[in-house]
Amino acid sequence: MIHQAALTDLIIKMGDDELVQGHRNSEWTGLGPVMEEDIAFSSMAQDKIGHAWALYRILHEELGGKDPDRFAFMRAEKEFKCSHLTEMPNGEYDFSLMRHFLFDHAETVRYESLQESSYEPFRQVSKKLKGELKYHTLHANAWIIQLSNASEESYARMQTALNDTIALAAGVFEPSQEYEAILMEEKVYPGEKELYQRWLDRIYPVLVRSALNMPALDTIQPVLGGRQGFHTPHLAPLLKEMGEVFNLDTEASW
Amino acid sequence: MLNESLDPRVNRLKLGAPGEVIKVEEGENWNVYEVFHQEKRGAHHEHVGCVHAPDPQLALVFAKEQFARRKKCVNLWVVKSADILAFDVEDEDMFANNLEKTYRDASGFKVMEKINKFKQTK
Q1: pLDDT tens across B37-57, in order?
Q2: A138 at the B interface (CB within 8 A)?
Q3: Is A142 on the interface with B (CB under 8 A)?
Q4: What is the number of other CB atoms lying within 10 angstroms of the CB of residue B54?
Q5: What number is the ipTM of this complex?
Q6: What is the DSSP string of A217-247?
Q7: Which of A12, A34, A247, B51 lies 20 to 30 A from A228 at CA?
Q8: What's the pTM?
């Protein structure tokens, strides 16, 4: 049997990234730059919440975890394992789009690798999300290329957004000190280092088509800590707002 | 902005001189794309509406969430609305005379009389 604590740790990280990123993206609902984009971005935010739910359900049904709703809305901030990238406030649309681009490619290489996981629930979930992730990255690529080629201002904004986001995005691939070797040995997934490489291979061609300059990788200091429960000051208010309705009456049936 | 309105709550947009040329830069003005939806493989693509987008690729990206989110869909087409050629509205009368061509249909032949006559002789 696969190491349960190691699996649990990995699922929480992945689920929390999806939940927090999904919530952040949903904050754009009604504020998007054009109606078509507003609908697309909101719809993808819902997809992400759905991904979180699918992962929390594995915890609940296979690994003795709590009910997904209670797990999502009733945990203390330090028990969350999301990356700092997902916690950051939306800023302007350039930042949100760049984060969407970097995050969704990171997500895609991760779920793709899970198609060969030794853990059956991972194989199922990766198969189920494949189509959605394909659309999310298509959407992100189209915007990055469009805005980088539109005008001087939009190009400069996208380059700035990339410079501001890259270290945060690299932090998504923070390995667990305790469990990384076990998960790789048990062939649950290929490990963060390998995923980081695959991610770079995915984002490079799009950045080249956009004529954006990738900051030198050896100068990037990945922003770590989220996976160990250390968070930016932005997470606590997000969690409070996200759980506000649920926590009015935690026993209510919906 | 100079507020020339008598109503202090309202600002008025100052339009340029009527003869002034307005220059639209490439990519500044979004296009309208017509969206065609295919429900199953091999079926016709049916027109379902339109989206605004700066290029065909983003039009397709938008169309997917606008028109294929709930209904079953296997593919979409997008076509720039400006690329569609249509007749003028006032030329609708071109189609009118088709109504008078019943002789081309089987129903145009009055055969019941002959049939009834034939039945009576039996």
Answers
A1: 999 999 999 999 999 998 899
A2: yes
A3: yes
A4: 20
A5: 0.77
A6: GGG------GGGT---TTHHHHHHHHTTTGG
A7: A247
A8: 0.82
